[in-house]
Specification:
Rossmann fold, alpha/beta, 8-stranded mixed sheet, 8 strands
Length: about 180
């Protein structure tokens, strides 16, 4: 078993960091230039692990880490560039101005795909066409909530917004054989 199991439309159970990265790889295989993916979840929920999987699928160069202090790290060398943003430290009440200062307007919706950690407060500003992914440490009814390493399992929930976001969500749901 891969540690990644579809448990409903737009919902997956991930029992390990490797399984979360595998989900990212499946997502990365479907990303195209201009795609925007919003990643939400508490600290340690797996957002950066998912980003590592996306980068691997795209063939992006460089180590993927959370860009909390840089706000934006772009990875090239792959099928398309990957722009990884972390908006945790931004003030959502400042909106577009904060995004501009972080460099978001230079990359989001442009060449490559954008993964935006902590982007929910800015989602509408970033793109009307997006995929929203929430990662949560959560017990799944009837399943062992802990992995062998003692880490809580994760639930990954996906929601497409706009026609492109909905197409990405459908593509992930149709990856049934990959789980």
């Amino acid at each position: 078993m891969s540690g990644l199991e579809r448990v409903g439309e737009g919902r997956w159970h991930s029992s390990s960091e490797e399984a979360t990265r595998r989900f990212g790889e499946l997502l990365g295989a479907h990303l195209e230039e201009g795609d925007v993916v919003i990643l939400e979840g508490e600290l340690g929920a797996g957002k950066t692990q998912l980003a590592k999987g996306v980068a691997k699928a795209l063939g992006a160069e460089g180590e993927v880490t959370s860009p909390t202090f840089n706000l934006l790290v772009s990875h090239s060398g792959g099928r398309i560039p990957l722009h990884h943003l972390d908006l945790y430290r931004l003030d959502a009440s400042s909106g577009a101005e904060e995004l501009g200062e972080a460099g978001a307007w230079d990359v989001v919706g442009e060449d490559g795909a954008s993964l935006v950690e902590w982007g929910a407060p800015f989602a509408g500003l970033l793109s009307p066409e997006r995929l929203e992914i929430a990662l949560a440490r959560e017990e799944l009814e009837g399943a062992d909530p802990r992995t062998l390493e003692g880490e809580p399992a994760r639930i990954i929930s996906v929601r497409g917004v706009g026609s492109r976001g909905e197409a990405l969500a459908r593509a992930l749901d149709e990856e049934e054989g990959a789980w």
